[in-house]
Structure formats: structure tokens, C-alpha cells
Queue: 4 jobs
Job 1
Amino acid sequence: MQLSNFPVTLVEHSRLSQVNFDELSFGGVFSDHMFSMVYEEGAWKNPKIHPYQALALEPGVAMLHYGQTVFDGFKAFRGLDGEVRIFRPDMNARRLHDSCQRLCIPIMTLDELSEIMIHATQQLIKLDHGWMPSQWGHSLYVRPLVIGTEATLEVRAANSYRFMIMTAPVGSYFTNLQKGVSLRVEDRFTRAASIGGLGAAKTAANYAASLLPGSESQQQGFDQVLWLDGNEHRYVEEVGAMNIFFKIGDTVVTPPLGGSILPGVVRDSALTLLADWGIVVEERRISIDEVLAAFRSGTLVEVFGAGTAAVICPVASIGFKGEVFQVATAPPGELTLRLYDELTGIQYGKLEDRHGWNVHVEIPG
Ligand SMILES: Cc1ncc(COP(=O)(O)O)c(C=O)c1O
């Protein structure tokens, strides 16, 4: 694959002047340009950058019926020093590669995918650098997407695909670190099967499964769903679109990756920082009964979610079977805030990037 700049078709009229950067929602507006390439006759080809535009797809495209689609999500940040940094895109390439394999999408090698994804993202950001927010907490969200494009109603893997990358300026997902979020434990519906399902893949079906419980949680006054395992509805899995951490006494506990949980990039980053700081972490199954017992004994000092959208998000309370439990420490807890500050400090170039997580983008002067 030739990795010099991809061919570019520029927009005739930029939409940038219509964007209100003070009122950004999450993915409500997309930047002027996008990247795409196709898979046809057994090969990935025709990589290019062109205006963000509607897709022409037949209604009989199997992906629309059977869900053979995967995506990922990561962010680029404009630092206080004016530099633009992309946070750990190699991890997202790896996850997208794994997601493709699980959904039977004939993806290129991991090295090729990683190179193309990072290179295309850098080229898109250079081209659309005016879309890159500069306010603290704001960022440019990058959304790669792979869809099957073959029109057939046969239930099988498609023989043609489109790989796209779009970008969107976004505000901070949860603005109130002091308030934290409230969770409702979901003990009826399941996000993903415990064994052998799609939980570790970033694919549409998992998000479709989350919509009804998410809407029920909001109707009952909670912000997000706390998912339990799909087998016994007993062990905590993850929360909304984040991985979950509990600080019980001096130990941090987070559920292990076992195929049903999305392997979060921020989860991995948090685990690395916690290890750096010498904090005891247990990656192990934790039952909702154990969480409630820790609430009752006052040893559950902090709960937080970790994910690209919110980075680190304090949890204030958890509702289960009609009872609401308040976390002992008012948000944000000390460790929650330390992780939030360290991660955002690295992302915005305020703190040293000791692990080499950031990928720089040279913005034309
Ligand atoms: C279901 C789910 N779990 C966890 C995460 C956190 O993953 P990451 O840290 O890579 O954003 C996300 C967000 O992508 C998610 O959608």
C-alpha cells in the first residue's frame, strides 16, 4: 500500500462557518472531509479523501438487514501549546481489526490497517484543522467505520465493503465532574452474551441491545446502565459506553476482559497509570452483591467509568431493585480526579507523555 498522501477532492463550500463551537454535541456535526476505501474482488483499493457525503446504497445491502458492520472511536486534541495530538490510535486500529475478524470482514493485516488509519487520520486533520476545537475538554472525535456493501439477502459475509473515517468536533461528554453520574443496575436485559458473543467487538448489535435498557434508565432518572453478565446477571461487566472501576478500601477492582466486555483504550491507559503509581489493582470478576456489601460497609470509596468520550467519569450513585446507594466519597474522588488530570494532561500536552501514547499531527502553518 502506497502511503504517500491519499488523493483528495476538496469541498466546494466549507460548512465550518456554520458551526457553533460553544455548543457542540457528541457527533452532531461532521467535518468537511472524510476518508474512504473499498474492498472489491478480494482486495482493498481506491483509498481517497473527499467531501463528507451521503452514501448511495441499495436497500438490499445485507449489512442493513443483518448488521455486518464495525466501528471504532478515538480523539485528537489541540494542546495549550497549539500542537495536535491523537491519543493511542494504534490501539483503536487493533480493536477495529479484531472487530472485523469477529464479524467475518476480510480486513487487511493489522500493520496495514494501523498505518492506513493513522495516516488517513493525520491527513484529514491537516486538511480540516479549522474543525479542531481549541477549548479545554473539547476535541476532534475520529470515527472509523467498516460496512458490508453487497446487495444480497443471503445470510453470509458480504463480498464487498467500504472502510470510512469521518471526524467530528465534540464537546466534553459529561461536563460535571463534581456531580458524577447515576447508574441503574440492569438485571433483566443483557448487553452481550457472556461466552462466545459479540461483546468484545465494537459492532452495531451491542449498541442496539443497549438502547431499550438505556431509555428505561433515563425514564427512571438514571444517567447510565450498569451491565451485568449475560449468564447469571450477577457479575458487573461495564457501564454505558465505558469500562468500570471500583475503589474498595485501598484496592481498585475492575472486571477482566473475557470476550463479553469491550477492551477499552482508556481502561488500558488507566491500568498502566495505576501500576505506575503502585496502586493495587485486581482485574477480576466482581459480583453486584460484593459491590452492595462494600456500599453497606462504607468501604466503597470511589467508582468511576473510563472511556474515550468522558475520559474518566465519576459515579455518584448506583440504583438496584428500587434502592439507591450513594458512593462514600463525593465526586470526584481523589483517585478519579488524579486519573482524569493525568490522562487529560497527557492528551492536551500539559504533562509528559511517558508511555509514548500520543501521535503528533503537523498542522500547516
Ligand atoms: C461498550 C463500551 N465499553 C467501553 C468503552 C470504552 O472504550 P474506550 O476507552 O476505548 O473508549 C466504550 C467506548 O468506546 C464502549 O462503547
Job 2
Amino acid sequence: MGEYHIRTYEDRDYEAVRAIFSHGILEHAPAGCWHVLRCPQTHLLLLAIFYVAYAVSASLLFAGGVVAALLAVGWVRMKGIWAEYVEAALAEDMGDIRKTYLEAKDSCFWVVTSREEVVGMVAAVQPEDPSQQDVALELKRMSVAKPHRGRGLSKALTRTVIRFAQERGYKEVVLGTSMVQLAAQRVYEGMGFRKVRAKSPSFLAKLLQFYVYYYRYEIAGSR
Ligand SMILES: CC(C)(COP(=O)(O)OP(=O)(O)OC[C@H]1O[C@@H](n2cnc3c(N)ncnc32)[C@H](O)[C@@H]1OP(=O)(O)O)[C@@H](O)C(=O)NCCC(=O)NCCS
């Protein structure tokens, strides 16, 4: 960790953590779009539209143009979905970080700093699923600024959450991450988290075979 230091969130960190969180999510929008483009359902739909446009116009150029226009609209829409997710989070839990994470029971928010600059973050909170409350804490909002990645910061932040949960008698740490967040999946799997469920966040996501993966870490020696 060397020059890095993990401490509890303070109000002066507000803008920095919101920016790191936003960038960390929005950088996955292109991968999300590529996933949709590679989906067989997308290929079938585009082929059908191309066929109908050609049947109506008898012009290959027109049919190709319709497909190209749809691709452009779809790309913008897909990016919009990621932006809407960020906007919602910034307005909800990330809108009042102190209230959501520091004043609530068994919750916390940490930042990692380098020479007083905030370069990463993570939170622990009671899971929304009532069946998991009292058993598990949820790890949320993990993000490390790009220039500081690959130095073990997310591992240190994850260990911080595990220790926090253990000290409060919880048996598990749970979390969810999307299928295109590959670095996060490697971090969690490398630390012993097990993938326990894959679920689509919406009907459209299900059609496009887009999943959120849910992970569980069993705390050794928990009470
Ligand atoms: C996921 C993320 C937090 C990882 O942060 P990090 O500080 O770079 O990760 P670490 O340096 O602690 O790496 C931990 C392990 O994962 C591996 N890893 C991290 N990023 C990786 C990548 N892009 N590709 C492959 N392996 C990767 C590291 O090699 C390391 O394994 P090792 O100890 O065996 O070498 C960071 O990439 C990030 O902020 N991403 C955007 C936001 C995000 O997706 N957050 C997750 C929300 S659930």
C-alpha cells in the first residue's frame, strides 16, 4: 500500500467520490453496448429489419441505412441506460453519503487516499433483501481511479469491508456486479468470493442476455 491510506469518508470527500464512482461505472458503457451487438437476438432483429426495409423499398442502400440508423440509436440508448443508473445512484445513496452510510446501523464508507487525494472508495451497508439482513453485509460502490489501479487497492478495500462485517458478527459479505465488469469479477473471485446467482435487471436485459452476477464471501470463524 505504501503511499496509500484507507480512512472513513469525510464530507470534504463528497465531490471526489462521486466523480470516481461515475467514471468507474460509465467506463463500462462501451462493453455493455458490445455485448448487445454480439447477441444473436440483436443479429436476428437487425436481419429482420433489413429484410423488411429491403422488401418495402427494393433498395439495398435504404435497407442498410435503416439498419445503420437503428444501430446508432441503439448505441446512444444503451449508453443512456448506464448514465441513468449513475444519475439514480448519485441522487439516492450517493446524494447523502453521510446519512446513507455513516449514520445507518452497521454501515460505513471508506476512501483510499494518496497524498491527501481521494483515489478510491468502497461502502458497506445492510442488504436490501430482508432474508440476508442480520446474516450478511453488502459491499457496494467499489471503485479505484484509473491511474491507481493494479496496486492492490481494491483488495485492501475489500478486506476492510470483510473485517468490518466480521467485527459486527456477520457471517457473509455479499455483492452484485454486472457481467461486463471483468476486473471486479477477477478481484472478488481472487479473494474467495463465490458467484451464487446471475439475474437480469429488467425484461429487456433478459432478452439481451445481460446479467448481474451476485457473489457471496463466507467469513471464516464468524459467530
Ligand atoms: C475493479 C477495480 C475496483 C479493481 O481495482 P484495483 O485496485 O485495480 O484492483 P487490485 O489492484 O486490488 O487487483 C486485485 C486483483 O485483481 C486483478 N485485476 C485487477 N484489475 C484487473 C484487470 N483489469 N484485469 C485482470 N486482472 C485484474 C489484479 O491482478 C489483482 O490480482 P493479483 O493480486 O492476483 O495480482 C477497478 O478496476 C475499478 O475501479 N473498476 C471500475 C469500477 C468497478 O467496476 N467497480 C466494481 C463495482 S462492483
Job 3
Amino acid sequence: MNGLVIRTTGSWYRVLNADGTTVDCRLRGNYRLRGNKQTNPIAVGDHVVFDLQDDDTGVITDVADRSNYIVRRATKLSKQTHVIAANIDLLCIVATLAAPRTSTGFIDRLLVTAEAYHIPACVVFNKVDLVDADLAPLLDQTAAIYTEAGYPVLYTSAITGAGLDTLAALITGRTVLFSGHSGVGKSALLNALDPTLDLRVGNISDWSLKGRHTTTFAEIHPVNLPNHSGQTFLIDTPGIKEFGMVDFTVQELSHFFPEMKAVLHDCRFANCTHRHEPGCAVKAAVEAGTINPDRYVNYLSISDQIIADQ
Ligand SMILES: Nc1nc2c(ncn2[C@@H]2O[C@H](COP(=O)(O)OP(=O)(O)OP(=O)(O)O)[C@@H](O)[C@H]2O)c(=O)[nH]1
Ligand SMILES: [Mg+2]
Ligand SMILES: [Zn+2]
């Protein structure tokens, strides 16, 4: 039999069959790990082959090749990586400017990783109902950074329903990974998209305005969005504090900023790092205002981090 891994907890994998039933599976004892760099050999989104046992549990014997996957460092300083999900059609980075505030540094690290792993991405600014006149200019400015870089940007509110039709239209029929800090409203957004989901949503404590890590493991929720036809797979994930990137070099980094990639062939040196080299087309574009300075600053910060980690 074969199916889609929709939940992983400890050594158990919940597999969704084509007929809509699920089987809880374990991994065959001698299953060959793809190297020991990854803490989890199978992630949500993987398509697996399994044998059904007498007790109605399954034993996974094989995993299909992935079209893509997204990884982060297992812990802050770890060399090991954690696969968040596999076979993703779209990454929705859920961000907020109020309670908690998402930095562009965080968004850019996720976007860079999405580019590196060939996953289309969008930025969803949630909790727009909390954006007052004072905050609105900052929201528009931040959103413009990503629109200009070529990413779809949405404004949503899980509370008022603002922007949900646009979000539903963007994600229908796709497998969509929702990622972002704890408390930005990932689970609340999924509930708002499909009220039958009834996912657990956290409380924001007034004193700290920090999320509480309500969602504790990644899970795929198959849904049929109201007013949209086609099966959609929504992946809810636990909030992350920092996004630990892996696996690429300073030389590669600018290729994962689409607006830099578009001009870097005009740099004088083929191995330009766009920091101090003369004749750098990226720096020229920043000075000319066609590349956003915030994105460039985050580029520098990520490349510093890559160098420090080497
Ligand atoms: N005002 C407002 N509150 C929201 C909105 N979306 C979510 N919230 C609230 O924000 C809090 C956190 O929402 P969750 O959906 O649990 O956040 P999460 O991103 O899933 O958090 P983790 O599971 O911890 O990663 C809850 O109290 C929600 O009611 C929104 O659009 N507007
Ligand atoms: Mg959640
Ligand atoms: Zn350059």
C-alpha cells in the first residue's frame, strides 16, 4: 500500500491513503537513512510505501523521491538538519507587525531557503485588524519590500476574515506550508480557511506578547476550501524563533535573492560577493534604489553568518 505522511510524532508516522483512511506506521527497522545529517528520515509530505500488519498498523518500507523539501538546523548550533516537510507547492511565510513583530531578517532567511530548495513562496501579513494608523505605514513599507522583490504579498486577518478569499484562491489545489514565529496566527488562519479544522490556537499573554508554541508538530490537513474546488493540503507547523539555514555558500547566496540574481551577471568579477568588490552591479542597484537596502543589509548579515559558521 502507499500513501502520504500527514503527521510524524516520535517513531510513528500517520499515513493518509487515497481512500481517505489513515494508517499509523513505523519505519522498517533496517531502513536506510539518507546519511546521518538529518534528524528525521521521513517528514510530512513524503509519499511512502508500507505493509499493513495484523494489528492494522503499518511498516514503512520505502519513500518516494521528493520533488523538493525544506530543512532547517535541528538546533541553533547543530550541524544536523531537520526536514520540515517534503513535496511543497508553496511556502506561506506568516508574519505580523503587531504581537509578535516579525523582522525582515527572519522573512529573508526563510525566503532564501525557499529559493535554495526551489519552493515558490509568498508573505502573508496576518492580524491586519490590529494595524492602526500609526502602524499602517510600516506595514505598507515592509510589504513593498517583498512585492518589489517579486513575491506575492497578502494582508489577512483570521479574526475579521480580511484577505482570506485572496489567500484561498492562491492556495487552492496545492500543498501549502505555513511557517513563521509562534503566535503569528498560523493555526488561526487555517481554522479561518476551513472552520471544520478546529485546530488549537494559543493565547497571547498580555505581559509578554510572545507566542506560546501551541502547535507542537507539523501536520498536513487535507481540506476542501469553501467556494474553491480541488483538494488542498495545508501544513501547519510549530512556530520557530529563528530560522537556521543550512547548506549553501556565500557565493551562492545572491542567487537566492531574485532581484540580485537578475543583475549579478553584470558584476565585474564572476565570483563577486557584492560586499567590497569594484564594479559590483548589486551594490550599484542598491545605490540606484532598484534593490531595496533592507534586503541588501539582510543579504550582508546572512553572508556574515555563513562565513562565521564555516
Ligand atoms: N487580532 C488578531 N488575532 C489573531 C489573528 N490571528 C491569530 N490571532 C490570535 O493570535 C494568537 C495566536 O494564534 P495561533 O493561531 O495559535 O498562532 P500560531 O502561529 O499557530 O502559533 P504556534 O502554534 O505557537 O506556532 C491567538 O490568540 C489568536 O486568536 C488575527 O488575524 N488577528
Ligand atoms: Mg499553531
Ligand atoms: Zn557584485
Job 4
Amino acid sequence: MPKMLIAYYSRTGNTKALAEAIAEGAREVDGLDVTIKPIQEVQARELLGYQAIILGSPVYYGTMAWEVKKLLDESVAFHGKLSGRVGGAFATSANIAGGNETTILAILNALLIHGMIVRGCASGDHYGPVAIEAGDARSRDQGELFGRLWGELTEKLFGGPA
Ligand SMILES: Cc1cc2nc3c(=O)[nH]c(=O)nc-3n(C[C@H](O)[C@H](O)[C@H](O)COP(=O)(O)O)c2cc1C
């Protein structure tokens, strides 16, 4: 069964809440195993065990928190081994236009350099789900939608008879 990791950094709970909405959507996809956990608890080596890796960060000065960058930098030890897997990113900020998209794109840059497959969304949050602070019904819906979309892609690419 394909496995998805949703790893997030969250100091005050906003990014964690969005991660939970994504996990809820992903869990609607049959035949997908979903793990959600704080990024500080993820060892770079563990990434090899997942067919989909979705990373979330609060916006800190327009980009990801160092805890997220740390895992990405440590993942260089496995460079090339994540090629062809599904990648995605999400972010929360205090302000509209406070840097959610720049933060998502910074994370996606690293995932693309790993050779991962990144998808977008034609409606709503195009680059990945975002929330302003604790979020609202809109951000929860977008989180769930992305969870489903990334989950369906993962299942399509890696699912099927064992
Ligand atoms: C060090 C620091 C830098 C921040 N930089 C920004 C920023 O550039 N733009 C913005 O809109 N919010 C910024 N914020 C606000 C956080 O991105 C926002 O509150 C976020 O939702 C916190 O997520 P968390 O609850 O998961 O920790 C910053 C907060 C901190 C602590």
C-alpha cells in the first residue's frame, strides 16, 4: 500500500490544523496509508519509506521555518533516491500576501530538485493549501481537497495489486 507522509512545523498550532485537514482528505483515498507528524520527529532516512511527501511550514520572513529547511538539507544524504515520488507543500501566515506562496514555492524548489512529482490545483489554492493564522472553512476545504488530490495521484502511481 502506498504511504504518504504529512510533516509540518507548527509553533502555535495553525500549520498543524492545516496538516490535519490535508490528512483528513488523504484518508478518503482507498488504499493509501497516511502518516502525519511534526517535522522535528522525522529523520531524513525515513523519507525513503514514503511514496508521497507533503511538507508544511508557517511563513517566517517570507520563507520556511528553519526546522523544515533542516530536514530538506539533511535529505541530501539520499539525493536521487526520492526521484519520481509525489511531493507537495502547504503554509500558513499572519497576513494575506504575507508569504504563503513564496514559502510553498521554496519548499517545492527542493522537492523538484529531488526529482519529485509536484501537482497543482486548477481551482482555489493553486500551489498548495494556505491558511491565514488558524484558518477558516475555506482553508479547511482546500486542505481536504489537496489531501484527496495528492492522495489520488499517489494511489494512481503507486497503488494496485501487491
Ligand atoms: C519568526 C516569525 C516570522 C514570521 N514571518 C511572517 C511573515 O513573513 N509573514 C506573515 O504573514 N506572517 C509571519 N509570521 C506569522 C506566522 O507565519 C503565522 O502566525 C503562522 O500561522 C504560525 O504558524 P504556527 O501556528 O503553525 O506556528 C511570522 C511569525 C514568526 C514567529
